[in-house]
Amino acid sequence: MKTLSLALSLSLVFAATAGKKNNEAAGDKQSISFQQGANGYTGTVDVEIWAVAPNTCLEGNPNASSDADNDGGESQILIRFEDIIGDGPRRIPPHSAVHSARLVVSAFDPGTPVHLHRMLVPWKRTATWNSLVAGITANGLEASAQKDSFTFGKISASSSDIVFEVTDTVQAWVNGTANHGWVFINTGPNGWDFYTSEFEDIKQRPRLTVEFTPPKK
User: Fold this and answer.
1) Distance CA 144, CA 142 (A)
2) 3-class SS at 104?
3) What is the C-alpha to C-alpha distance for residues 77 and 122, in angstroms, rounded to an integer?
4) Domain boundaries 32-213, corresponding CATH code
């Protein structure tokens, strides 16, 4: 009986310890959002590039359009969230485990399906169609050939939050791959528009939300 009681006691202690460790691990999970003007964040860069105005910088507009035929020429949207990885407050520590990452934009005009591709090359906030050599091609050189996510852009009322799943890309950045953001490429001639980081209502600006667990120290 003493042996059985001892075994039972040890079992209960082990279960309590394991439960505590699991709770501690679960408690390590954190969530952070990056949105221009919210909580002091100012690192969003988004710009439309347009074949009809190939040398014109459209950065600074409150909205942008992804359209395979925008008044006779394709338009694409580039977006990047800078300074999201590193040590310090409101950043994702390097080598964290990313559980989920979602890019959310507030769209106000439905259109043909849009594909989101990870950019593989750097670009400036002054980018134009010509400075990026006739826009971006998802060929594995300028942008990933594999799309991160896509949407049909279903819109309700005047605007809707459209979610793009980007967990794998953010994990790659956290692991050390360079963060060059994404490009939105429309698959058809019906434009798909959303509000940019310059839009007056902060809540409708693009937002990147990441759930992660920091590495053990």
Assistant:
1) 7
2) strand
3) 14
4) 2.60.120
Identity (one letter) of the amino acid at 48? E
Altogether, the residues listed in the chain come to a count of: 217
Compute the distance between CA of residue 165 and CA of residue 139 in angstroms, rounded to an integer. 20
Q: Phi and psi for 22 in degrees, rounded to 5?
A: -65, -40
* DSSP symbols for 151-169: E-----TT-EEEEEE-HHH
Q: Shortest CA distance to 134 belongs to which of 55, 45, 47?
A: 55
Name the residue ranges covered by the structural domains of the chain. Answer: 32-213
The answer for residues whose C-beta is within 8 angstroms of residue 2's C-beta and 6 or more apart is: none
C-alpha–C-alpha distance, residues 100 and 213, integer Å: 10
Q: pLDDT (tens digit, 0 to 9) for every residue of the chain, 217 residues total?
A: 434 343 434 343 334 444 434 433 444 899 999 999 999 999 999 999 999 999 999 988 999 999 998 888 999 999 999 999 999 889 999 999 999 999 999 988 777 888 999 999 999 999 999 999 999 999 999 999 998 887 755 555 566 888 999 999 999 999 999 999 999 999 888 888 999 999 999 999 999 999 999 998 7
Record the tokens describing residue 122, joined without a space. 């750097």
